[in-house]
Amino acid sequence: MITRKKVAIFMAFIISFTNLNAIVVIDNPPSEAITINVSNNSVNRLVLPSTILDVSYSKEKGVDIKVVNNQAFIKYQPVLKEKIRTTGKNKVEVIGQPETIYDRAQSSEVFFITESKTYSIVLNPVEMEAETIVINDFAASKEEILKYESNDPFIATMGKITQSIFANGVPQGYKTKKINKIIANDSTLEMKEINTYDGVIYSAALIEVRNKTDKALVLNPKDYIKFAKESPKAISVYYDNEVNHLLPYSRASIVIITKAVR
Question: Which helix (H) or strand (E) holds 154?
Answer without folding.
Answer: helix 154-166
